[in-house]
Amino acid sequence: MTALQSTLSSLAGAQSSTAPAPAAAPTVSARTWVAVLGATLGAFMAVLNIQIVNASLADVQGAIGAGIDDGGWISTSYLIAEIVVIPLSGWLAQVFSIRIYLLTNAVLFLILSAACAFAQDLPQMIVLRAVQGFTGGVLIPMAFTLIITLLPKTKQPVGLALFAISATFAPAIGPTIGGYLTENWGWQYIFYVNIVPGAVMVAMLYYSLDAKPMKLSLLRQGDWPGIVTMAIGLSALQTVLEEGNKDDWFGSPFIVRLTVIAAVAIGLFLVIEFTTEKPLLNLRLLFRRNFGFGILANVLLGVALYGSVYIMPVYLSRIQGYNAEQIGMVLAWTGLPQLVLIPLVPRLMKTVDARIVIGVGFALFAASNFMNIFMTNDTATDQLFWPNVVRAIGQALVMTPLSAVATSGIEHENAGSASSLFNMMRNLGGAVGIAVLQTFLTKREQYHSNVLMQSVSLLEQATRNRLDQLTQYFVNHGVIDRLDAAHRAYVAIGHIVQKQAFILAFSDTFYLLGTALLVALIATAFLKKPDHLSSGGAH
Predict the structure, then answer these.
(1) Do 88 and 194 belong to one domain?
(2) How does pLDDT run across 421-439, given as a tens digit for each residue?
(3) Which domain range does residue 264 map to?
(4) Helix axes 195-208, 98-116, angle to 10 degrees
């Protein structure tokens, strides 16, 4: 909380220290800022909850007696519920009013978070996490909606910078917090950590949000065919993406069936949304130049953001043998610099074209991945420091201006659809990115193993010498039977080759992430500069 409060103070300072606004510039009440701060704190906690649990998943699985395969549903259930509720939030906020809808879900999120710490077995944990995901998923788009509806255009960059803390800083710092809590306090504290900041969030929202009557009549007018097809389609798609690699993709009848269901349901959803009079989501917003290209860049940002948060801990654990806390310390340098940089971005946007800021951010984020494409067995904490810092700078520069440019010109009545689409597509991009990287890593490891094994031949003198050295090593360390020692030498050679193949595969995955970010950079070249983001001297 201290770091977050410090960041919020910096943001306020950045806003107040800028050049005086024109006399006609709209003012924002302190109560409105409290609402924005409370909502963005909720979004931060919801996103943090995903990564903080993922970082400690092995410990949670062991504590409740879940196997590795089945234990993955602890995360999958949360993500499925979250991806479904995000596009529903705009409509449900109209039905129940923003105050009631947001406060109810904020309180339930805290209760369910504490309840997860008391789960006794896997079924209990899956149910609790699914319902928690449904409440936590509300906090993300509602924060975005409040920013683009309560704040005037000139103040939105400050609000969006706050939101960027949840969108880019939270995923980066999640493994750090999760690893520390698990190693020093126990896995239950990854759920308890939400309670104190959550209570502050509820108090802020209770004080600042205006009470408005519910419009329950909207339930009868709801786009129920769209809601049902969307929920089925996104649930099936998210499950395919989360479980596909583990189940050998289309080698599994379960995955094949879910893929067909997802394709049919999402196809029907698109038809319904484009033909119904009052759609759940206004998909025509995607045809607007800035929003459409902004969504494309945002999807690729999700691919790289969540993909890199996934791939780096896997590398550090599998290759370097790091525990959760050590992994968190390495990843801290992708998060902590953002607390310093994100508050400065709104000020930067006043003097530099927002599209240039986005472009530089994507270029740096891409460069940070390309810095990791020549990894070796020695690539560890020190070698990853500068790539992580460069990545932090790039991420800090991207999110705020991208959100501002993409949502420029969005009308008040379309704010819910815009918020739902923008946040849903980034999360969906993350799910796609992780699924692709899992499969890509496996395939590239197999490829490099085959290539390397061609060089490890008994016809090569170097191979025979190495086998003799390893055999003698095992004999000298207590293996009496020389045949057994020779067998262990063969196994050791196999492990060395496999480890090297994995290192090369990890290098390839970073190359893929960098390439995706370059595509995002190209997408930003098609963005049009919004009038309200024009810098003081630019016309």
Answers:
(1) yes
(2) 999 999 899 888 888 998 8
(3) 223-279
(4) 170
